[in-house]
Write the structure tokens for this entry.
Amino acid sequence: MTIKKAIIIIILLALGAGVVMYFYGKRMAVYEVSQTPTAVEQAVQQAKLKAEADAWDTAIKKTQSEDKDFDGLKDVDEAKYGTNPEMFDTDKDGLSDGAEVNLFKTNPMKADTDGDGKKDGREILDNTDPNKK
Ligand SMILES: [Ca+2]
Ligand SMILES: [Ca+2]
Ligand SMILES: [Ca+2]
Ligand SMILES: [Ca+2]
């Protein structure tokens, strides 16, 4: 092996090592960036959370403007049924006004819709029909 050949081999080896180190360094840089959220990503995340919170807030306010006592019956409907728009369970039978009207079809103004001596809420718990004696 001539000295010239040996030098060329050494240069090639050095180049190869340099290329490897170069790509390794780049990969590490990419890895670090992907592990640490950038300020932009954090801002985007925060904006998303805020938008979500705002959406909830709007939804709650909208519900409250239509259904003050959150019983599932809108204020306009409470006026129709004669129930108290500020009372969750107007006849105090254990069922909310909304549940009586929409779910059980019982009278939201009468604690004992069928008059059998058992309140509507009790009948639902006992699995009996609150609309039938
Ligand atoms: Ca209501
Ligand atoms: Ca009720
Ligand atoms: Ca009732
Ligand atoms: Ca009853």
Observations:
- Residues 112-114, 116, 118, 120, 123, 130 surround calcium ion (ligand 4) (CB under 6 Å).
